[in-house]
Amino acid sequence: MQNYKYLIIGGGMTAAAAAAGIREVDTAGGIGLLSEEPDAPYNRPPLSKKLWKGKPLETIWRKMEGAQVDLRLGRRAVEIMPGKKRVKDDTGETFSYEKLLVATGGAPRRLPLRAGDIIYFRTLADYRRLRAAADSVRRFAVIGGGFIGSEIAAALAMNGKEVVMVFPGNDIGDRIFPGTLSRHLSEYYRKKGVEVIAGEKITGLEIRNNQRILKTGGGREIVVDEVVAGIGLEPAVELARSSGIAVDDGIVVSELLQTNLPDIFAAGDVAQFYNPALGKRIRVEHEDNANTMGRLAGRNMAGMSEPYTHLPYFYSDLFDLGYEAVGELDSRLETFIDWKRPFEEGVVYYLKAGRVRGVLLWNVWEQVDAARALIADPGPFTLNDLKGRLPAAKK
Ligand SMILES: Cc1cc2nc3c(=O)[nH]c(=O)nc-3n(C[C@H](O)[C@H](O)[C@H](O)COP(=O)(O)OP(=O)(O)OC[C@H]3O[C@@H](n4cnc5c(N)ncnc54)[C@H](O)[C@@H]3O)c2cc1C
């Protein structure tokens, strides 16, 4: 049996950040990492953005050399034995740990259709498959109008592909953007040559003459060469749940990122934590959270006691538009839109009971900290208070 002082389950960005965090505190203790993926840890965001804009694949790898991590790739952890402080993988090999991190992230939600016919986009393997398809065929369907769907549709269109986007909502990004902005976004995609089919659910998929025929609830048939989907994430909690780790909408962690079981921590997309600025427990599926929380989990595994109070931000690139955002972006909240140039540059404030719950910085940069401060401020705010509030004047 292999013994590790620190064992990490998962090979994503959280895992890589945790290894670096451990090394900030403990330069010697052995670190083992079990990842189901065959690839060493890499950054996921470029898979739907920069790699389609000419950035080379070599740029995505996480720098792991300095952390001296024993990478066990292509291995799935199948059992955690908290009493014995051991983990078993799918080859039957067992590893012991003093401190364990569960950083299992999540798996893409799937449609009830035959597996294998659709690329559910998440990993480098998915990117390679989609890239190979883009190199050989012409017409793509993208299912989903959220983060992944909108980025992949833009990436394929920018690479000269014919793209049909289909999703059940009214407009692209309508769960997070106010109606006027998501309507504008759908029109913007259409102008970029993307066929946007809103208000339709996929109910079937047939393969005929090497083509994929998607059927919609409204009776349409969409004929394409390849189908890619981004319809949300299911946190990978089963391993934790079956080991007695408390799970809600994700693995429940304390402010020190510990689970309910001794010496077991969790972080990243899979972890549900209390955020003081928002005053509630949240689970966040974004890069800043993976990096910041992963690093802190590593430091705390190595003996520190630092609370995670960070309010993560996120970002996206859609053709030549880009944004950063903090807090709760939920289009059901009251919103106040403060455009400098309509749909090109401005700030959207999301409000509840006089407090700012979220801020969208649309082509507005270096304002994330100011937005965080606004969310932490108890207010109360009126719409008049917010007009012109961001970008904050430079000190
Ligand atoms: C295409 C794409 C684009 C993105 N773009 C952005 C962006 O622009 N901005 C942003 O803020 N965020 C973005 N994100 C989100 C961000 O990448 C994620 O929040 C982050 O990668 C989460 O990291 P994680 O390590 O917590 O989870 P994951 O990345 O899901 O990693 C979990 C790892 O654990 C492994 N694993 C799971 N179960 C087991 C097991 N039982 N045994 C062994 N290994 C296991 C998985 O194989 C995987 O390697 C994007 C995500 C994707 C997929």
Oligomer: single chain
CATH architecture term of the largest domain: 3-Layer(bba) Sandwich
Number of strands: 26
Distance between the termini: 58 Å
What share of the residues lie within helices?
10-25%
- CATH fold-type name of the largest domain: FAD/NAD(P)-binding domain
Low-confidence stretches: none
The major sheet is characterized as:
7 strands, mixed
Molecules bound to protein: flavin-adenine dinucleotide
Rounded average pLDDT: 97
Radius of gyration: 22 Å
Question: CATH class of the largest domain, please?
Answer: Alpha Beta
Number of domains: 3
Properties at a glance:
395 residues, FAD/NAD(P)-binding domain, Enolase-like, domain 1, 3 domains, seven-stranded mixed β-sheet, five-stranded parallel β-sheet, 26 strands, globular, binds flavin-adenine dinucleotide
Helix and strand topology:
Blueprint: E1 2-9, H1 13-25, E2 31-35, E3 69-73, E4 77-81, E5 86-89, E6 94-102, E7 106-108, E8 119-120, H2 124-136, E9 139-143, H3 147-158, E10 162-167, H4 179-191, E11 195-198, E12 202-208, E13 211-216, E14 221-224, E15 226-229, E16 233-235, H5 238-242, E17 247-248, E18 250-252, E19 264-266, E20 271-275, E21 280-283, H6 287-301, E22 313-318, E23 321-327, E24 334-341, E25 345-352, E26 355-362, H7 368-376, H8 383-386
Parallel strand pairs: 1-2, 1-6, 2-3, 6-19, 8-15, 9-10, 9-15, 10-11, 18-20
Antiparallel strand pairs: 4-5, 5-6, 7-16, 12-13, 13-14, 17-18, 20-21, 22-23, 23-26, 24-25, 25-26
Helix pairs in contact: 1-6
Bound molecules: flavin-adenine dinucleotide (FAD).
